[in-house]
Design a protein that fits this description.
Layout (H helix, E strand, L loop, with lengths): L9 H31 L5 H45 L13 H36 L4 E6 L4 E4 L1 H6 L12 H4 L3 H10 L6 E7 L5 E10 L6 E8 L1 H36 L6 H32 L8 E4 H18 L3 E5 L6 E4 L1 H17 L6 E7 L8 E8 L6 H4 L11 H6 L6 H11 L3 E7 L3 E9 L3
Parallel strand pairs: 7-9
Antiparallel strand pairs: 1-2, 1-5, 3-4, 4-5, 6-8, 9-10, 10-12, 11-12
The structure holds adenosine-5'-diphosphate.
Amino acid sequence: MTESPAEIKPALARFFWIQFLSFGLVFVPLAVAAVLWSIFALEVPTANALVGLAVFGGVALAAMAVVAYVNARRIVNRLESVHNVVGQMAKGEFDKRIPAANRQQIEDLAASFDQTQRLLKVRVEDLEASRNQLRTVLDSMVEGVIAVDRDQKVLLVNEAGRRLFPIQDLAPVGRPVWELVRSPQLANWVAQSLLQSEPVGGELEIKAPVPRILSVRVAGLPGPTIAGAIVVASDISQLRRLERVRQEFVANASHELKTPLASIKACVETLLDGALEDAEIRVRFLQTVNEQSERLDRLIRDLLALTRIESEAERPALHPVDVAEIVALCVNRQIRNAERKGMQLVSAPPAAPVRVLADEEPLEQILDNLIDNAIKYTNSGGTITIRWEVPDARTDARCRIEVEDTGIGIPQAHQVRIFERFYRVDRARSRELGGTGLGLSIVKHLVQQMGGTISVSSRLGKGSTFTVDLGAAS
Ligand code: ADP
């Protein structure tokens, strides 16, 4: 189809000779008959008749040759134009038309070519449209898809497939799948699925560049025999991570609940075993039972608060809140506790009143928790200062609230982790002070729910500053 028109040039000679010989078949018997007729009927001398034959024969042969050449040329021209159009069709160009001509047969051929071409154009456009649709569908899937032929060579990969496995090669089509995804496990599943009709698969760990856990299913592509395989993978890393976090949380919570319960149980058993009679022991043990049940109560309340906040059942309704009012409420609640422990609790208001975009209740909860921690982790004689401001009202509509203490401080390595659930720098000290290890994670969730951020800066032995950034109300 794609050879040049020059290759059909020999056809010109063939067509010429066919035409010329056809004329010859008519002319030669006529010429012979004319010569014989003029010799015998008209009694023309044989020599003259032969000269006449030579002259007229020569002229006739020349005329025949010209007519045969012109005819042959026209036929060949038409064939060349058909050939050209077919050649263009093979290259996907469907808009060339065969020029009109007066030879009916070739005209019919040209017409049927044109019709075939139009049909082919529609079909090819349909095919391209469905291929584009398929590509769009595949690329918008969250699951990664790789299709391979029976030789495990890649037929297609969608965007998610490239990202999840990951496939860096920009032209993966035609390359063996085991060369693109270096996983013996995946290669095994693909090989297996090419031999059996049942799908295979499981979990696949991808280590680099981003560690992921994929859930993979490989199924044979149906055909008279298995024609290839299709790999479908979904990223379940997040699911597994959440499961692990949940398991850790349940284990931590059970452990935290078990400790005070065990203590209460031991006290009660000792009292029942006879210690009840001893007034001094009885009071001490009952005090322990009281302390531990209070700890249990705090723990359960914190757990319930955390669950409620995390489930995001009630999102805080943000509105302008006067920070000074909330700080005053919290300071009043905690000032006695601070004074009892021999420390100062002071607030340092800005020159102009500041209003923050928040909800009163969670904002109080945040400040209560931070002040309570500051009191817990500051030694007698220390100072706790609460200050708030809008650092730059023109460029940054944020309100910054700081709770600063002169307490024990937090080692650098622990600073990033203290907002995690149950994370404590000094477990024993936190328990002794009635901590549950949940306060800061509750604070962090509440701040985030109100669209803010929280950070800490601290120096061991010098003190800590917790900074809450929330939207400032204009
Ligand atoms: P806890 O109930 O133990 O106080 P939190 O979640 O409130 O739990 O705090 C987590 C840990 O962060 C604490 O156990 C403590 O080690 C550390 N921490 C929190 N606030 C302070 C602070 N103001 N000064 C020093 N350490 C602190």
